Input
Amino acid sequence: MGCCSCTKQFNWRFMLAALTLACAMGSAHAETLEINVGLEPAPPLITEDGKGLFIDLLHSIEKQLDVHFHINIVTFSRAKHDLAAGQLQMIGFTTYRSEGAEFYSTANELDWSINAAMDIYTLDNRHLDLAQLLKTGVIGTPIGDEEAMSTLLNIPKSRFYVTHLKNLVQMLKAGRIDALIFERASTMTTINELGVPGIRYQKVHDGPGGLALHREPGLDQLKPRLEKALMAAPKHKELKRFFDFYNLPDTGVVALDPAAR
Output
């Protein structure tokens, strides 16, 4: 009898433990996935105050994915470092398929990108010729983007002076650099915010921007769902202002809009 009683008691406890575990697993499954995202300022897509057209797009797909994107505005070099360390789960914008091998050892780039024009910006027409600029010019690009710019344009990484984009535009105005090379919408928006007249531009490359996830099982499972949601999002409607920049002529003078300041 004693043995039978012990067996019944054991079965009851086992069933209770199994039920508790099942409930806990069900609760965990229902929880929203929290994603820490590191984004480099790229106005009007991503602004320094954590807003922008692309951030609106990310928030618009949270519900269908059952995720919550925590937005952190950082330099791209910091974003890459924190992604590799697992402190961030997603970063952007990458220079699509053009980051270094070390980056891809810990980063899983989405099969999704957004077209972006890369331009030279200068106050001196002579520096619109990349070959001429490379002879003696001092070239700026935002911190963290020098490796990708080097790969895309076959320019030694050591030739780039790196700092924040606003600083680069101010240095260009002051004559401390001869030119800067970066993505069009971000650069023209910043030029407008600072109100610097007479800056000329010349497209040197079409370089799509992308997103990358940290390599870990849970995020590997999220990747195809996130790609599908981004591809299905009304990108051309939500990001119209960005594509207005992309569709400008390949060369010209940056137009200043008084409303931007």
